[in-house]
Amino acid sequence: MVSKGLYHHSEISPKAMQVSHADLYSAEVKNGGHSQFIHNAGREFDAMVANARAGLTAAGAKGQLATLEDMSVWVAEHPEEAEGQTGFEGGRDDFLDTLDDAFYDADEAAPMIDLLARWVASWPDLQIVDDDNWDEAILQLAMANPRRESRLLHRSVAELVGQMIRRRDVGVGLACAEASPPEVKLSLGVARMLDVEGEKQLAFQLRTNAEELRLCVDTDTHAAIYEYIAPEDPPIARPGENILAAGAPRVGRKLGQVDAQTVTKVIELAEEYHAPVAVDLLLRKAGIDPTKAVLSANSIVQREGGPAVNWVVMAGGHAFLFESYPDRGVLLRGDNEESLAEAHRTELEEYFALTVAAGE
């Protein structure tokens, strides 16, 4: 309903949301503990807890409900500690680990999935659908949303906003451009605490246009990419090192770095120039689907009319260069820098207003 139908949570059956968030609570705890649930919930924590609470109460999952309530109280009483939760070593509070144990004990005694299933089966307003017809029935419900088409536009731009405004994505893209030869950020993967230049830092796996995997970090002062040194197989623990740490990749030679001030400047210009909506609009003008486009920040170039920002765009199986100016945006073919599409400031402002309205 959400991913394909683009319904808002408020437009979905409250009971369905309660089951969904109760199940999500269980999945997060079993994967990375209450610490991970708090981190991933973010600003939606209160709404997710409220839904999960209602679902667990209705299903009779008393033990799991007790751990949920204890977690909620702890977050309210320890807001700063809650902000620091990551689900990884170094970002886990000891009290939350005790709640993990209590949750597992409760779930072993009365599996939450069984309790939720019995509750759902008791709903009087369900329609029974044959297994062979289930996928089609769900698809029809998703496609029935009258706001779906306009929200598809909004989601497309929102994906671009994330890549062009989110600090980690922008910083890593700029750091890739500083490598020799330059690389293009494609995707960020799993993260773990690793030794980075003598300090424990949260490092992410990184895919670029290079054949080899990379590692990257995003700190308060800089973003950087490094060579990825694969873990030994089988892992061999060094003196004083546990076997889990031995199975982790190691950070190799630094390949590129960019300072935090440059990252901030690129983000500010991307917002000011309406860069995400420009990319969406220009790709559509060029006949290319923007919904799976991958953006990598490249550089700031001083022009006569003000600073311009260059971005590498991967879409439709091709590489493009997007030049973002104070008064316009230009999409160029990557191999010969042939201009494919252009949009001026007034058109971008109108398109921005359209995409904002589409998300309502």
Structural class: alpha+beta
Query: Helix-strand pattern, N to C?
Result: HHHHHHHHHEEEEHEHHEEEEEH
Q: Quick check: average pLDDT?
A: 92
Number of domain units: 3
Assembly state of the chains shown = single chain
Kindly report how far apart the N and C termini lie: 16 Å
Helix count, DSSP H or I runs of 4 or more residues: 13
Beta-strand portion reads 15-25%
Q: How many DSSP-defined strands?
A: 10
Side-by-side strand order of the widest sheet: 1-2-3-4-5
Annotated CATH topology of the largest domain:
A middle domain of Talin 1
**Into which percent range does the helicity of residues fall?**
40-55%
Q: Low-confidence parts, pLDDT < 50 over ≥5 residues?
A: none
CATH architecture of the largest domain: Up-down Bundle
- State the major sheet: 5 strands, antiparallel
Radius of gyration: 24 Å
What is the topological layout?
Blueprint: H1 14-41, H2 45-59, H3 62-77, H4 79-83, H5 94-109, H6 112-121, H7 134-143, H8 148-165, H9 167-177, E1 185-196, E2 199-208, E3 214-218, E4 222-229, H10 243-246, E5 250-259, H11 260-272, H12 275-285, E6 294-303, E7 306-315, E8 318-324, E9 328-333, E10 339-344, H13 345-358
Antiparallel strand pairs: 1-2, 2-3, 3-4, 4-5, 6-7, 7-8, 8-9, 9-10
Task: Describe this entry's structure for a reader.
The protein contains 13 helices and ten strands. The strands form two sheets. A five-stranded antiparallel beta sheet has the order 1-2-3-4-5. It has a five-stranded antiparallel beta sheet with strand order 6-7-8-9-10. The protein folds into three domains: 9-143, A middle domain of Talin 1; 168-260, no CATH class; 264-358. The protein is α+β, with helices and mostly antiparallel strands and 360 residues long. 48% of the residues lie in helices and 23% in strands. The mean pLDDT is 92. A hairpin with a 2-residue loop joins strand 6 and strand 7. It is globular and about 65 Å long. The relative contact order is 0.09. It has helices at 14-41, 45-59, 62-77, 79-83, 94-109, 112-121, 134-143, 148-165, 167-177, 243-246, 260-272, 275-285, 345-358; strands spanning 185-196, 199-208, 214-218, 222-229, 250-259, 294-303, 306-315, 318-324, 328-333, 339-344.
